[in-house]
Amino acid sequence: MIGRMLKKDLLRKRVITVTLFVFIMLAALLVAGAAGIITELFGSMDSLFEKSSVPHFMQMHAGEIDQPAIDSFVEERVDIVKNQQTVELLNINGANIILGNNENSEADSVMENAFVKQNVTFDFLQDTDNQILQMQDGEIVVPLYHKQQYNLHIGDTVRVTSGSFSMKFTIAAFVRDAQMNPSIITSKRFLVSDNDWNSLEEALGEIKYLIEFQLYDINRVGELESLYQSSGLPQKGTVVTYSLYRLMNSLADGIVAAVIILVGILLVAIAALCLRFTMLTAIEEDYREIGVMKAIGLNHKYIRKLYLTKYVAMAATAGICGYVLSRLISYVFTANITLYMGSAEKNIWSVMFPVAGAGLVIIAVAAFCRLVLRRFKHISAVEAIRTGSSRGGGRMRWGFKLHESKLPNVNVFLGVKEVLGHFQSYGLLCFVFVICSFLMIVPLNALNTIESPKFITYMGAGQCDIRIDLQQAGDMERRYNDMMGYIQNDNDIEKYSALITSTFQALSREGLYENIKVEIGDFTKFPLEYSSGSAPRLENDIALSVMNASEFQKSVGDTLTVLVNGEKRNLTVCGIYQDVTNGGKTAKAILPYDPDNILWYIANLDVKDGTDVPAKIKEYAAAFYPAKVTDMNDYMSQTLRGIVSQLELVVRFSLGLSIGIAVLITAMFIKMLTAKDSAPISIMRGLGFSLRHIRTQYITRVLFVLFIGILIGTLAAGTLGQRIVSVIIPGVTSLKFVINPLVAYILCPLLLAAAVTATIWISGISMKKMSDLRIVAE
Q: Taking every annotated instance into account, which residue ranges of this chain make up the domain ABC3 transporter permease C-terminal (predicted)?
């Protein structure tokens, strides 16, 4: 009997049933899909890291090394260190490298290209089948980043030239590099044979080193880092730990998973409110019948079961369909993971997590339905039969008189009057429009912010036209002085700032002195975005990156003890800034420095209006060779390409989803509203109102609610949305959106309004089918 009742009820309310089914299915699809992305991401990463045998601690170094001293350090700490190796990187300037059929070299690329040999102990470079690569002479394995950038294929050529020297390689495979896969890491490794590497090393390039360690217990990485920093071993470069490798590899796809989970949660909320609205409407329609059932002896639990069975069955079916769909379309969101890290090995968790995600949606919907249907306990059989409806439903809150209205159109006035008088009835629709506006605007604003030149200030660098990096090489100080003299005499330069990064020692919370990289210079010309405080202005000021502030447990106003030229100096923390470069552990101050401890020099430049920036970059690249001269717009587009491409996918998805949600909800709402208002509609038709007039009233109602929803949603996107995105993007604690007003405040609302208006207009066909004599019959 229950089955027959369910079937008839579902067929009688097709639009409402389909709408609720789609919402629950989408919620289950997104939650299960996000669980699948997370499972795939960490499963693939674990597999890649295990097969490549990633180092747990790595110190980059430019300059001479003393390998016997490193060996002695390891021998003294055999209880911690499992393996140690020193990897030679042959850094070759991009101007000497031509990839594939490109006519131009890699001179304009922001990537530092290093040619390496295959390692023998750990940190193995793998192909796209996650097999350790073995090289033959004349072959080269190219990073996946370059494959994507230039659409390279196996069999294409790579040429390395310098003057009369030239070598030609054939691409044999593409490398998965657990250390340097992500685009945000600006170093990339090309793998060649030992013989070819030796030939290249004799002809050109600079040697840098990766001093790598594997530990018995990965939890002792911090201990090893402290010991290494206090050992006096080579440290002219960035320190990277295992946790940072995981963070960088999961950054882009982790953001996508977090956004999808957020959207899924919002869809569950929408589905719950839709269910509440639908159930209360059904109860209102069946109020007299419920009273009759109570009067003949059926208790409230049995009556509740009749309603609950229908919605739980629908939720379970929708949840299962959502899970199945999530498995079918998961490749759309996991394609990037599969390319860069490979497919995760299938296990019970790769199935259980998505199933659990869909199951949670079903349980949440069922629990909410049970909560709503508790009101059956309080329905009086006598009162239900006598009145046929619940109490307190339709009293107009605010009275508006037509002759006092300033609205020129009567139908517009009636629409606005209805919404203001019964706004509680339109709360669901308003909430959905708030969510739709939020989902459309937040991803767009996030994408616009990341693509903005200003986003570099959240990465620990100033916003400028050109940046010049001068790293460890022979006679670096003389070349720096020559470079600054050249810049000072260049009339095309509007302003410039020279920054020197040097190593100091700071007192840790354990009472030990640890190395800290401090950037020294004038930070007012090209300022950063500070999450709290401001840039250093006095000699006793120091600004810390978020990671350093956390490690030293310092906040603005606290004191940090730093050794400056062998003397203790208490510096006041004046600001905390966001930084995802150089391992995220940096500081900025105005201090005297030791030339022997300088790691690198940086010059930030702004050119005058009308200056040809690409031509100026070529001029500087030739004048300051082998310094790295970068167009900062190119730097942002190249390093953030992985994040931007994933965000673009999210923007398209959220835009389509928002429009779809608005259309479905509007169709369902209008269907239920016109059914409820069938008598008033018939009266208006009888009084001479045309279908066009009635449509205008309903369009006015919904568009008025849409206007309120868009207003609230836009405000929420600019406030709450900023905070959510700040939490989602690792390393960024305080983000301010860069907004495109035309897109966010005009095009998106117009698109939503057009979709909603079209839906109402099409839904108006059902009004036409209503009998004008229905009210007479009643």
A: 262-371, 654-770
Pairwise CA distance, residues 606 & 624, whole Å: 17
Above 80 in pLDDT, residue 738? yes
- DSSP assignment of 351-378: HHHHHHHHHHHHHHHHHHHHHHGGGGGG
> What pLDDT is recorded for position 768?
54
CA triple 118-122-125, angle to 5 deg: 40
Domain identity same for 99 and 145: yes
As a whole number of angstroms, the distance between CA 200 and CA 80 comes to: 36
Domain presence at residue 132: yes
Higher per-residue pLDDT: 84 or 343: 84
Which residues make Cβ contacts (< 8 Å) with residue 546, sequence separation at least 6? 531, 576, 577, 578, 579, 584, 731, 733
**Domain-terminating residue out of 390, 415, 431:** 390
Residues 584 and 518 in one domain: yes
Q: Which residues pair with 515 in a beta bridge?
A: 505
Q: In this structure, are 693 and 735 located in the same domain? A: yes
Give the model's pLDDT for residue 776.
43
Cβ-contact 684, 477 below 8 angstroms: no
Conformational region of residue 64, where left means phi above 0, alpha means psi within -120 to 50, and beta covers everything else: beta
Last-in-domain residue among 625, 655, 685 = 625
- Mean pLDDT of all residues belonging to the chain: 84
**Other Cβ atoms closer than 10 A to 194:** 11
| CB-count exposure of residue 711 (10 Å: 0-12, 13-18, 19+) | middle
Look at strands 541-545 and 81-92 and give their pairing. Answer: unpaired
Q: What is the CA radius of gyration of the chain?
A: 33
Work out the angle at residue 649's Cα, subtended by the Cα atoms of residues 646 and 653, and round it to the nearest 5 degrees.
Answer: 140
516 and 549 inside one domain: yes
Per-residue pLDDT of 511-547, as tens digits, reads: 888 888 899 999 989 988 888 899 999 989 999 998 8
Domain span at 92? 85-213
Write phi, then psi, for 560 (nearest 5 degrees).
Answer: -120, 125
Taking the model in full, what pTM does it have?
0.79
On whether the CB atoms of residues 228 and 73 are closer than 8 A, the answer is: yes
User: Tens of pLDDT along 678-702?
Assistant: 677 777 777 777 777 777 888 888 8
Q: Are residues 577 and 708 in the same domain?
A: no
pLDDT over 60 at 257, yes or no:
yes
616 and 678 fall within a common domain: no
Amino acid at 386: R
Establish if 231 belongs to a structural domain. no
**Contact residues for 601 (Cβ-Cβ < 8 A; gap 6+):** 469, 470, 476, 480, 483, 498, 499, 500, 501
Residues constituting the chain: 778
pLDDT for 198 equals 93
